[in-house]
């Protein structure tokens, strides 16, 4: 089917906003996407009609509990979980990872080993580094291959020992866009007896996640990267999390997932989270899927990926034609399915921020910097204080926006080089 881009864009009020008559082009999506009207409506409706704490017997508290339950069920379908009990929802990915790292640390002892990658966002690095410092753990570093732009299975296998307790992996890079073969990497790590913690923040907006098929123990993502509110979602395999005892208040519930969800939940945001999953469900239904919510979500990713990938490849191909511009990531059209549509580049002799400032002034929204991909820029030898220019496509972007962005990149680089455009 032809992707219904006009119908999709109509669902996002922010896409029609202008500033002094100038349109906006949102290509800052790896840092956070815009939200459909349905998400904002769900948040507002919760605050206005079901605003109560949990655990009582009156109408609003009963309704609030249903919102909480619905959000966990929606995310179980989104991630392919066996049960809503496996879904832990909190403030954001980094906070949840710090919380889980401290919980897992109670099962570790000095001399135990953890493996971290040079490809991960800092939110899946610093919590484990600091845990290692606190407990006297050994950290082993897993680089990514600068030819494939992925973590290679052989490289992981060489680092695993009988002391390895955990491997923290990246599903897709927020800088290079590369997608790792997490299922194969997980299988190798599990054969060595290690737990596997997968950061899927950048993959979740662009591809179907199936935690049971991957075989990992934990997987985390962020709702505001897939058209939802600002919150993080951690899936934990039931037998693993059921054996863990997190730090919590003495009188709070010991049930799952409640014992991992500290304090009063952000109930209005949970309402928005369910609506964000509903966006994918609706897209799948519009594409002809009449099955379960999970099947509709799968169909949504099928059609959105088929729409996004050509846009990403057009962006890559045209950027590649600019003299002195280096794309840090997969550029081969035959391998476009092995990356998400996040494209980062540098230009010889030009500081990335100077490009981005000029393009932001044209109301083209994108980022420069290391974007918390701290280990990546260091492995690539890119000055961390400068980083890269990062352009990230979502399925509400259009071919016309990509063409206008490319024209801006060429014009800005020419201007900074004082060349005739």
From TrEMBL:
Q: Which Pfam families match?
A: Aminotran_5
Residue span, Aminotransferase class V domain: 25-403
Q: Which domain of life is it from?
A: Bacteria
Q: What InterPro entries does this protein map onto?
A: Aminotrans_V_dom (IPR000192), Cys_dSase-rel (IPR011340), PyrdxlP-dep_Trfase (IPR015424), PyrdxlP-dep_Trfase_major (IPR015421), PyrdxlP-dep_Trfase_small (IPR015422)
Q: Which UniProt keyword terms apply here? A: Pyridoxal phosphate
- SUPFAM superfamilies, A to Z: PLP-dependent transferases (SSF53383)
- Put simply, this protein is called Cysteine desulfurase-like protein
Q: Which organism is it from?
A: Mesorhizobium onobrychidis
């Amino acid at each position: 089917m032809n992707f219904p881009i006009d119908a999709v864009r109509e669902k996002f009020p922010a896409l029609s906003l202008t500033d002094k008559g100038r349109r906006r082009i949102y290509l800052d999506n790896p840092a956070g996407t815009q939200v459909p009207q349905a998400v904002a409506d769900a948040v507002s409706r919760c605050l206005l009609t079901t605003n109560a704490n949990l655990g009582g017997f009156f109408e609003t508290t009963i309704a609030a509990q249903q919102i909480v339950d619905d959000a966990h069920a929606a995310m179980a379908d989104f991630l392919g979980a066996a049960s809503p009990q496996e879904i832990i929802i909190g403030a954001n990915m980094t906070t949840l990872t710090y919380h889980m790292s401290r919980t897992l640390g109670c099962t570790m002892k000095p001399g135990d080993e953890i493996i971290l990658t040079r490809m991960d966002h800092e939110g899946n690095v610093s919590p484990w580094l600091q845990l290692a410092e606190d407990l006297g753990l050994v950290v082993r570093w897993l680089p990514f291959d600068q030819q494939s732009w992925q973590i290679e299975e052989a490289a992981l296998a060489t680092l695993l020992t009988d002391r390895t307790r955990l491997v923290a992996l990246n599903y897709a890079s927020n800088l290079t866009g590369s997608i790792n073969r997490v299922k194969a990497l997980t299988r190798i790590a599990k054969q060595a007896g290690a737990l596997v913690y997968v950061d899927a923040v950048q993959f979740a907006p662009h591809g179907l996640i199936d935690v049971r098929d991957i075989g990992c123990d934990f997987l985390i993502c962020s709702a505001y990267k897939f058209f939802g509110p600002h919150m993080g979602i951690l899936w934990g395999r039931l037998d693993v999390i059921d054996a863990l005892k997190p730090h919590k208040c003495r009188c709070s519930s010991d049930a799952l997932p409640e014992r991992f969800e500290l304090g009063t939940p952000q109930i209005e945001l949970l309402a928005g989270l369910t609506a964000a999953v509903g966006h994918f469900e609706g897209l799948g239904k519009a594409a002809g899927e009449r099955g379960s919510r999970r099947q509709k979500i799968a169909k949504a990713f099928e059609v959105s990926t088929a729409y996004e990938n050509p846009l990403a490849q057009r962006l890559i191909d045209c950027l590649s034609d600019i003299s002195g511009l280096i794309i840090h990531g997969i550029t081969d059209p035959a391998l476009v399915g092995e990356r998400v549509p996040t494209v980062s580049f540098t230009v010889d002799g030009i500081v990335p921020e100077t490009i981005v400032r000029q393009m932001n002034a044209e109301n083209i929204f994108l980022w420069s910097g290391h974007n918390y991909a701290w280990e990546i820029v260091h492995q690539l030898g890119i000055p961390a204080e400068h980083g890269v220019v990062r352009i990230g496509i979502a399925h509400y972007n259009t071919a016309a926006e990509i063409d206008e962005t490319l024209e801006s990149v060429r014009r800005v680089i020419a201007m900074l080089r004082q060349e005739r455009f």
